[in-house]
Description:
Elements: H1 2-7, H2 13-35, H3 40-67, H4 78-86, H5 91-103, H6 119-127, H7 132-165, H8 168-180
Amino acid sequence: MRFCDRYIGKRSRTHDQMVQAARSGVQNIAEGSQAAGTSKKTELKLTNVARASLEELRLDYEDFLRQRALPLWDRRDPRRDSLVARRCTSADCVAQWAKEQHQNVKPPSTASTKSTMSTESTLSTKSTQSTYPEIAANAALVLIAVACSLLDRQLASLAAAFEREGGFTERLYRVRKNARGDSR
């Protein structure tokens, strides 16, 4: 929400869409966890909805970068690892990390002469001039990737457990059957 309020017009459909996708991701994770005790099927479904919401949000952040001609960080970009290693637990922590990243940017060198300055070095200089919107959007993408990876693992685990143990109703049936001494 902080990102959208800062970088996307509040009356924009994209603003509302991104906020709702983020909220949907969080809410469905919570609802799925709550349903876990009584319905593995519902837990699996809601966790999958959360994963899909985060995927939608990922695409919106990528669109944000593309539409503003801002770079999407490569998977090997050290800033990604730096953010993950920080293990932020709040938006304030991520904002502090973004501020540090922005402050660590080196200004373009003016010592180069025209004869030694190539197109390649000009491009690399531009890529080191990270802006807050670039850092913030890429940071969100890093965090979404981490969340999606964790949800993918959770979904695989839930599916395996459901396949192995069945759902709540099936387990209750087995308990009732065993209690009656039913051999059917």
